[in-house]
Amino acid sequence: MIIKCPYCGPRDVIEFIYQGDATRSRPEPASNDMAAWNAYVYDRANPSGSHREYWLHSGGCRQHLVVTRDVSTHAISSVVFARDAAVAVKSGEPA
Amino acid sequence: MTSSRLSKGGRIDRSKSVRFTFDGKAYSGHTGDTLASALLANGITLFGRSFKYHRPRGVFAAGSDEPNALVTVLAGEVREPNVRATELEIHDGLVTQSQNRFPSLEHDFLAINQLAGPLFSAGFYYKTFMGPAIGPLRGTRFWMFCEKFIRRAAGLGKAGIAADPDRYERMNAFCDVLVVGSGPAGLIAAEAAASTGARVIIAEERPLAGGSLLASGELIDGRNPAVWAREKAAALAAMPNVRFLTRTSVWGYYDGNVLTAVEHVSDYKPNRTKGQPRQRHWVIRTGRTVLATGAFERPMVFPGNDCPGVMLADAARRYAIEYGVAPGNNVTLFTNNDSAYDAARTMSLAGVNITAIIDVRPDVSGTCRDIASVAGAELFLAHAVTATHAGKALSSITVQHFNAGTGRVSGAPRELKTDCLGVSGGWSPAIHLASQAGGKPDWDEDLQAFLPPEPNQNWVTTGSAAGYMDTISVLSDAATKGSAKSRLVLPPVEAPMLDASPAPVFEIEPSAKSQKAFVDFQHDVTADDIRLAYREGFHSVEHLKRYTTLGMATDQGKTSNVPGLAIMADVRGISIPEAGTTRFRPPFTPVSLGAIAGERYGDLRPHRLTPMHDWHLANSAKTYEAGLWHRPMIYASHGETVEQAYTREARAVRQSVGIVDVSTLGKIDIQGPDAAEFLDRVYTNMFSTLPVGKARYGLMLREDGVAFDDGTTWRLAETQFLMTTTTANAGPVMQHLEYYLDCIWPNLRVHLTSVTDVWAGSAVSGPKARAVLEACVTGTKVDNVTLPFMGIVHGKIGGIPVMICRLSFSGELAYEVYCGAGFGTKVWETLLVAGEPFDIMPYGLEALGTLRIEKGHVTGAEIDGRTTAHDLHLDWMLSKKKPYIGSAMIGREGLTDENRLSLVGLISMDNQSITGGSHIVTDPVPREPADSFGHVTAACYSPALGKYIALALVKHGTSMIGNRAFATDLLRDKHCPVEIVSHHMFDPEGSRMHG
Predict the structure, then answer these.
(1) Which residue in B215, B375, B406, B484 is a FRET match for B381, CA 20 to 30 A apart?
(2) pLDDT at position B124
(3) d(C-alpha B386, C-alpha B416), whole Å
(4) Is B984 buried (19+), middle (13-18) or exposed (0-12) by CB count in 10 A?
């Protein structure tokens, strides 16, 4: 699998570390909604098809990326910096 | 003699003789021969014994699809088993051996296995090796004794035990178009792609280009097609944008258009050029792949079809045309399609005597009849071969009338004399790589074969791999598949009008009395095995494959896949596409582990050495590995045990002063306006309140509330911190921090830099530590006012700028001195000189551990991914004023349960050492199983206390203090009475480090 890092260009998957589901959202830090925390820490869906995932370019620029990948074909439809995606989510735009 | 060398023909170099041995006998062949062609030329038709039944087997194919003729190549002590004789190029001095025979190929003792057929039928792994389910032998040692022999009887070649002396290389390559195969399709596709300027790699598994053209009787551009192919290949190889790899088998197709190939660089040569690897492994990343992998001829399944002398019709043709070897004196052919007629025509022109063609079809075209008549072959239409007869080699076959519609055999048997029977059951496109890439193949009713699936990556198939079976359509398809933009002018082709569509006949079903009919020759799977599997309930092709091991041998079912499926579909009464097919897996051909490993063998880990490493070694340090780091364990003095050494070192620290290399600690430079806020969020305690020039001990949790890592973080400026982590967690902590900055808090203005390798660190500990620094530090005072506990100062040692923080892991008055890594040894040595008057003692990890155990300070042994801050008595570090990572989950029931293990100290009551990992039990007698209520995390002899002590995680730890128990370690035969004490075993008030 080749991931097109927005900073480093297309690189082999061997340079990256999978960092998990990028669709979950962390409750507000002071939140004591245990159901929300539980969902954030433990609950993961296992969807077929398109999925948003964090990948850390550990052997390159060390940026976390949000990779949108079809988990059944490994086709990657988009790669953005996680920071940009997270800022976009915070400001209400779709990432 | 049956097979023999023809007087002329072939691409072998008859002027050059090559001497080699097979089973100890010397033979000669010519340059260009394979072991198979050379042995056939010498009249050898028996090549090996079969996998389970030890049946005599000959050569069956002429390429990588060979299931039978596997040999072991010997080179000194090194043996390479299961090499296909059909691909093995001979060279002077080649030593080969047949396989799976005892004591010799001709007289094989285990051929008796043929009588023990039921032991080896479908599912034999499950039935035979489980032993009888009933009867007197059930579950007996006798059966286990027998099993050893059964296992020895079944198998292929033996692997060697000598180390492989050869060198292998790895290569990465990038191209716009990768063309796999260089037959007519591959050559034209490569030419089309290369003509547009694309970077092209062509990989050909054979020693030379041409594929089917090498044995073709057609004319291309009015010339011999082998010559045409050779010139085309040479022209391509000369292009600057083309790389032509021969003897290179593409064996795997992976995601992202990544393909793997193995190139035989020098293993076919008698003398290798210096520096040449034996094989080279390629990882090729390509924009587009053109799979021009050709097609495999299928066998017919009929009784006795594994007899030496029976081979694929195309293989017979290839031996005759390519190698100038007549596969027999009287060659017969048995077919369900026209391609065998082309083989007959071509062989006949080369001087091979074709005596009969047996065709299951009731009628054939005029072209076919003409070919048979010109070749002088008797034509048996609507006939089938129903038996083979052989002494040591095929001598005759039985043919009978056959109805292709009903599959029924009838009429009087007739015996035909023949010493070579070429069979053709139709052609299967070589869809292996396309199948690996993930698609489901499509069944083609016309070709009676699976065609490649719809591409799921950027690849195309062309030529016979795509189902084009005549040269004219192969060439025009390849030109467009190579590049839509190319304007190649294709050469004219002269070929007989033949139709590759076979009659849908895969098997001549054996009668009760007839011989075994084999489907998978390499794994000895018969047609009856498939029917047995069906009767036993294994209907799905996936079950069929695993239960019978059909197609699971080293040839990956190249010849057996479709006939096997056809027979299963037939018993189930469904069509072949309804039965479906299994997915091909890499590797396409066997690949040596050496080629995959390349130069990566032995100890592959990087070695991390501290700047002072050489000093340690020069001063008798015994090192051990802590993760990737090499760290001093002890500095050995003559005649000391490890315990004596660390006791001496630890005692010196408590009595005077010691020095230890702490360069391995993880160090992260954290800068930015929001750095303090960031640390407040990742540490359980507060860092925004930390004044500049001070350090603080910090604890991090995971999001689930479990303790993650600890260390001190130093505030170097309002917006700059230096975080230290445990040695083992340096990487994970960095990744953890990066994750939160990138994904959770992107608005925090913070930058992280790993500076672990930038700083060398020396910790000076002991009552005389300050005196040592006073003697060598310039530019700053180090007294208690200027440098209080957790204070930081900047100064110089020996002229080298240093940063000194007063913090203590040992519990003594102690300082960590950091300097640029390049000056580590200089600063270390200057500190030693300054410490001489106080008998400063370098100490290793064992003493470091002893000092911290005495103090009850935790490390990774206690922060083990299961313990909480509360378990480790670190709850005082949990801020109530702010949320932090893990704060939401830390109060969960399971993490606050009364019954959790918590940290305590242990003191040995019998003056015996306690072993790490011991379980804490109450039973004074060692027994198993015992009710463990805790375990030892770290243990040592404490010079400060004069006792053997340990840290342990114990249920109800704090309330157990004062109780006695036993630390039991049944593996090491220890059962030690202990007293449970507070983990602060030495100087609980901490007066020494504050002094």
Answers:
(1) B215
(2) 65
(3) 11
(4) middle
Helix (H) or strand (E) holding B194: helix B184-195
Q: Which of B455, B451, B450, B428 is nearest to B439 (CA)?
A: B455
Class of domain B613-663+758-843 (CATH, top level): alpha beta
Report DSSP state, residue B271: S
CB contact under 8 A, A56 and B738: yes
Q: How many helices and strands (H and E) does chain A possess? A: 2, 6
- The answer to whether B547 and B122 are in contact (CB under 8 A) is yes
The pLDDT, as a whole number, for residue B389 is 95
**Interchain CB distance below 8 Å, B883 and A27:** no
3-state class of B639 per DSSP? Answer: coil
Q: How far is CA B922 from the centre of its chain?
A: 48
B1: pLDDT confidence band, cut at 50, 70 and 90?
very low
For residue A54, give how far its alpha carbon lies from the nearest alpha carbon of chain B (Å): 8
Q: Give the fold, CATH level 3, of B898-994.
A: Elongation Factor Tu (Ef-tu); domain 3 (2.40.30)
Query: Per CB distance under 8 Å, which residues of A are interface residues toward B?
Result: 1-2, 12-13, 17, 19, 22, 26-27, 29-32, 34, 37, 40-42, 54, 56, 58, 62-64, 73-74, 81-84, 86-87, 90
| Predicted local distance difference test score (pLDDT) of residue B128 | 63
ipTM of the complex: 0.96
Structure tokens at B314: 């195309």
B922-937: average pLDDT: 90
Asked whether B377 and B353 are in contact (CB, 8 A), the reply is no
Residue in B703, B742, B883 nearest the CB of A64: B742
Residue pair B330/B355 in contact by the 8 Å Cβ criterion:
yes
Token pair, residue B727, equals 């040695």
Question: Letter for the amino acid at A94?
Answer: P
Kindly tell me if the per-residue pLDDT of B575 is higher than 70.
yes
Q: Is B681 on the interface with A (CB under 8 A)?
A: yes
Between CA A36 and CA B890 the distance in angstroms is 15
Q: Which of B258, B458, B742, B751 to mutate to test the interface with A (most CBs of A within 10 A)?
A: B742
Question: Which residues on A lie below 8 Å from B684 (Cβ)?
Answer: none
How far is it, in rounded angstroms, from Cα B817 to Cα B611? 14
A70 - beta bridge partners? Answer: A50
Contact B746 A82 (CB under 8 A): yes
- How far apart are the C-alpha atoms of B277 and B255, rounded to whole Å? 28
**Is the confidence at residue B112, as pLDDT, over 70?**
no
Distances in Å between the Cα of B904 and the Cα atoms of B862, B944, B984 are 11, 18, 8
Does the distance separating the beta carbons of B256 and A13 come in below 8 Å?
yes
Mean pLDDT, residues B663-691 taken together: 97
β strands within B847-893, DSSP E: none
DSSP B651: H
Distance between CA atoms of B544 and B561, rounded to whole angstroms? 11
**Left, alpha or beta for B155 (phi > 0: left; psi -120 to 50: alpha)?**
left
Domain ranges of chain A: 1-22+49-95
Given a cut of 90, is residue B31 above it in pLDDT? yes
pLDDT at B892: 94
Residue B889 has its nearest CB partner, among A1, A41, A87, at: A41
Q: Categorize the per-residue pLDDT at B772 as very low, low, confident or very high, splitting at 50, 70 and 90.
A: very high
Contact status, residue B103 vs residue B97, Cβ threshold 8 Å: no
The CATH number of domain B666-754 is 3.10.180.10: no
Facing A83 at nearest CB: one of B456, B703, B746 = B746
In the CATH hierarchy, which top-level class contains the domain B167-298+429-494?
alpha beta
Query: Domain-by-domain residue ranges, chain B?
Result: 118-153, 167-298+429-494, 519-579, 613-663+758-843, 666-754, 898-994
Q: Which CATH class is domain A1-22+49-95?
A: alpha beta
Beta pairing class for B378-381 and B354-359? parallel
